[in-house]
Amino acid sequence: MTATAERVAGALRWLERRGTRRTRDQMLKQFGIVAPKSYGVPVGTIQQLAKELGRDHALALALWDTGWYEARMLAAFVDEPARVSATQMDRWARDFDNWGICDTACFHLFDRTPLAWRKVAPWSRHREEFVKRAAFALVAGLALHDKAATDTQFLRVLPLIEEAAADERNFVRKGVSWGLRVLGRRNPALNAAAVDVARRLAGRTEPAARAVGKEALRELTSPKVRAALAKRARTLRGGGQ
Q: What is the pTM of this model?
């Protein structure tokens, strides 16, 4: 047995010992996570193991290939973003079978790779529900984590959001809404652009598009978000408190 295989076997044993039926039931009934191969381990516990294991690309690939929900979550936490390939991203995305795996891979790994921006457009038009959701989970992750990204990069995403907003599938609709709302909280200029999109969506005839638009409008025009954006603008201008 190779060193990586031994680490995988040890990780699976560790996860199995900490799994419970109660957590499995909660994943399904409370969070809508369908995972046929699951031990029932909370995310926080999985992250504890990830810290112990450290970053390891080969381990991440092997963990993913086990098919276990918790092992795939763990893979997203231990992989090395700089070593993730475009082929790996597409292969893992095709394996997404619930929003938990999709969002964790996108928000904790893929959005930190040099390839993240290249996947948004093609995934946003993909026919598979969770691959399409992944496009907008990436947008949310990039809006929060990619400090070097320009407004222009995010403005190019807005037409993709408008195009996908009419998709009636629940997890796509929620992903589109998430991406638009986080993008619109990045700075005042993007907030204004996102609010314009949200207004157009709120006036559309398709129920899903209207729902996305109304939800985004409520959040992006709220006093809380406006105050946070104003504070951020003052900080950028050097105004301090």
A: 0.93
Q: Which residues of 121-156 are buried (b: 16+ CB within 10 A; e: fewer)?
A: eebbebeebbbbbbbbbbbbbbbeebeeeeeeebee
Render pLDDT for 128-157 as a digit per residue (tens, 0 to 9): 999 999 999 999 999 999 999 999 999 999
Both tokens of 192, joined, read 């204004």
Look up tokens 């991440």; give the residue: 60
Q: How far is CA 58 from the centre of its chain?
A: 22
Backbone torsions φ then ψ of 126, nearest 5 degrees: -75, 150
Cβ distance 106 to 141 under 8 Å? Answer: yes
Query: What's at 140, amino acid-wise?
Result: A
The domain segmentation of the chain, as residue ranges, is 1-79, 83-241
Tell which CATH architecture fits domain 83-241. Alpha Horseshoe (1.25)
